[in-house]
């Protein structure tokens, strides 16, 4: 199984490896289905840009670093309910949020590095909620890398899962952090630290962020972690930047937007070349099959030789570029 951009789908050689659902989680196309042109057009209209497929190239590819789709969708549903609760002036589903964060902590502890399901792999109506789940995954991964305790990871996770909750109260970009802060702090079951994550996740070390132009040590570390995760998911999911370039973008903001130590922790836990990526090496072309000891040096199956090379054990072999499906 591998993930591809929907415009790379080839009906003659591929079938769906995971079902495609609408915003109500109703299955539109099941695993094993073919994407006929009329279905393809419908999915594109829904804002879906990625699908999971099986084909001859996907044999031997592992997506173990990715959260399974049902769990991801379950937590998206919890976030959607949380946003709707604010809109309708009902209590937040606190217990469900806490269970969701506990599950995400368990998931990141299973993995040395993670890869995301892009938020554009689901109906666009779910994209804002999928974004918060992805942000939480990345943030918890960073938190794990810097040695946060379970209690601290829980506060970080709740704050990140609700970092955009203020958007259910206001459409003004500069106002949603404070609105989110007020929503979270009004719930005594939730930590004030989580509320400050929502309040400060758009602040920058250099003082040019919003809403309060905080700088340096005035910004809590957890909010910086959320900021890194927020930017990375936006780069990958919304702008369509490939992971290794998105990581480089984050690194360019080291010590201006985020602290160097947090950027370093981030880079240790995010995969640069996800399994299923077609790559051009300095010795030929291939496809990434899995990631083991180094998140930036994967194992690649060479197309012509039909054998695998572990780039972490072959320092002279380098990835020169990513290839689109049609190039291979």
From the structure above, extract its key features:
328 residues, alpha+beta, Molybdopterin biosynthesis moea protein, domain 2, Hypothetical protein af1432, 3 domains, five-stranded antiparallel β-sheet, three-stranded antiparallel β-sheet, 40% helix, globular
Structure in words:
The protein is an alpha+beta fold. The protein has three domains: 2-58, Molybdopterin biosynthesis moea protein, domain 2 (Alpha-Beta Complex), CATH 3.90.105.10; 69-268, Hypothetical protein af1432 (Orthogonal Bundle); 278-327, no CATH class. 40% of the residues lie in helices and 12% in strands. The chain contains ten helices and ten strands. It has helices at 37-45, 69-87, 94-109, 127-145, 150-161, 176-185, 192-200, 221-238, 243-252, 260-268, and strands at 2-5, 15-16, 20-21, 27-29, 50-54, 278-281, 284-290, 299-302, 308-310, 319-322. Strand 7 (284-290) and strand 8 form a beta hairpin. 43% of the residues are buried. The mean pLDDT is 93.
Structure summary:
The chain is an alpha+beta fold.
